[in-house]
Amino acid sequence: EAKERSGNHIPGLKPGMFFNTVTKEVYGDKVKVIPIHFYKSRVRWTTKEMGSGVRCSSADAVTGIGDPGGSCAKCQFSQRTFEQTDTERKCTLGMNFPLFVLKDNEDIEISKMAIYQMKSIACDTGKQWNALNSFRNKNRFDGTYILGSRLDERDSGDSFQPTIANLGWSTPQQSAIGKLAYESVVNWLKENKLQSSEDAENGNESEVV
């Protein structure tokens, strides 16, 4: 989408910028957000080539469907020690954050909720985000944050990776809508027989976190 010669190019979008994959709206290299919830997922691609197809996936990082399927915790392809090859790819962890993007007027609507996924290298930022939320000791939707991007240079290839920073607190109106959005996400997880990441790790019923 950021490549000008690509048929999927979005005007104004450049590497390192955030955009909406559904509406194609470009947010820029920094965006103000209100997080709602957090859950994990996993996917194992057939090969490292884009568009190669999914070999196995898990919508909650608990139970995989496909090859090999079964318990993600016990699967060799989810282990850090697994040595991937061209034919046997490692499973990729996704950290999913349902959220609201704050515009200039900072009004939010439950129908405008989006999901931002961090995976691979970006999971370090996802863990940092969860830690920042824990330090605040409030509901996720009671806080606002700045999502930014930075250039990550390494031998395996350069990429833009997300950064996260505290911004402030949600307004009472934002918190009220955030709570409704949270309940909506929890119900969706339950209806699809999925678990939030906190539930999967602790065996607890869903709570506002």
**Main pleated-sheet profile:** 9 strands, antiparallel
Proportion in β-strands? 25-35%
Number of strands: 11
Query: Portion of residues in helices?
Result: 10-25%
The residue ranges in which pLDDT falls below 50 over 5 or more consecutive positions are: 200-209
Number of helices: 3
* SSE run: EEEEEEEEEHEEHH
Give the averaged pLDDT, no decimals: 88
Secondary structure category: alpha+beta
C-alpha-based Rg, rounded? 18 Å
Label the overall shape.
Answer: globular
What is the distance, rounded to the nearest whole angstrom, between the alpha carbons of the first and last residues? 34 Å
Protein architecture, described:
25% of the residues are buried. The longest helix is centred in the last third of the chain and has 20 residues, at 172-191. It is globular and about 50 Å long. It has helices at 123-136, 172-191, 197-202, and strands spanning 18-19, 26-28, 31-35, 39-45, 54-58, 63-66, 70-71, 92-102, 114-119, 143-152, 159-169. It is α+β, with helices and mostly antiparallel strands and 209 residues long. Mean pLDDT is 88; it is low at 200-209. Strands 3, 4, 5, 6, 7, 8, 9, 10 and 11 form a nine-stranded antiparallel beta sheet that branches.
Which helices and strands occur, and which strands form pairs?
Elements: E1 18-19, E2 26-28, E3 31-35, E4 39-45, E5 54-58, E6 63-66, E7 70-71, E8 92-102, E9 114-119, H1 123-136, E10 143-152, E11 159-169, H2 172-191, H3 197-202
Antiparallel strand pairs: 1-2, 3-8, 3-10, 4-5, 4-8, 5-6, 6-7, 8-9, 10-11
